[in-house]
Amino acid sequence: MFPVELKGKVQIGLQNGTTRAVPTANIEEEGNEDALKKLGDGVFYGFAAVKEPDEEQNNKTSWYDVVTNIGLAVAHESPTIETYILDSSFVSRPLYGAELSLILHGKLRNMIKFENSPKGFEQLKQQIGKDVSEAKEKLSKINKG
Question: What angle do CA 118, 22, 4 make, to 5 degrees?
Fold first, then answer.
């Protein structure tokens, strides 16, 4: 089943990740329907290439480790594709309008619903930390090509 490719333009999300120190790049569902059906909901690991709108065409593609969450967000009726790029240079860099190419290599876990409270937020942060550690370990064994 893996790897699975997703592509799309980065769009503005709910800003929850940005305000919680885990900024994500959200791409549109359109054009990814078949891959989303194949994957289902969950948290996945893989690589991403980012092509920013003002970037000139060149032959060099840089791939970055990512953790991607696919599932229904509270304010959306369709699945969201939220990708956390595990490279510190992207933390404060808005990517709106950039083209994101994802190659997902595996699933870390199914979705977990956390309660909307300070305790739930702490549990979510701890889980994200575990997801990132596990993703880095798995991705270190895959050749980016």
Answer: 120
